[in-house]
Amino acid sequence: MSIFHPFVWLFKQFKSLFNSIEKEFNKLLPEVQNALKDATGIMDYINKNIDEPGSVIAAGLDALFGNIGKDKLHEYLVTALHDADLVEGIIDTDFEKTISNLAKYLKGLEGLNWAKEIKDIRDLLAIAIDPQNTTWHIVQFFGEWVFVHWFKKSE
């Protein structure tokens, strides 16, 4: 018996788990699927461009998520930041300024604090995008899978 046999078994179990999650994800309403993908994409884009000026990040988000629109993006982000208790010094009436403030705040975090904050904002953003159908347990269950499946895979 090969020493790698337990690792092969474990890999197959994880692959089976991910396939099961994908099947369940596909059963979600399209609005919920899109809210999860959009929220994950927004936070992923901000994170990948964190060293850029807020105006550049905002323009990129507007271009990538033009179907949502800059005003709605700002509204959803403000809702998520408010729900995360990240109001003071971050939220502004101007979209570019809010993005700039958020990027500056996130840059100041490290390690688990940074990862937790990104995840929390992403989850709250998904709920803000589709508050009628997207619940906390849905974003908790599918949020990381969406990131790994759609965004991490492309790196």
Number of helices: 7
Shape: globular
**What does the oligomeric state look like here?**
single chain
> What is the terminal separation in angstroms?
35 Å
Number of domains: 1
Question: Radius of gyration, rounded?
Answer: 17 Å
Helicity level? over 70%
Give me the secondary-structure category: mainly alpha
Topology:
Blueprint: H1 5-27, H2 30-48, H3 54-64, H4 70-83, H5 95-107, H6 111-129, H7 136-151
Helix pairs in contact: 2-6, 2-7, 3-5, 4-6, 6-7
Task: Using brief descriptors, characterize the structure shown.
74% helix, mainly alpha, 155 residues
Summarize the structure.
By secondary structure, the protein is mostly helical. Helix content is 74%, strand content 0%. The chain has one domain (31-154).
How would you explain this protein's 3D organization?
It contains 7 helices and no strands. By secondary structure, it is mostly helical. It has one domain. It starts with a helix and ends with a helix.
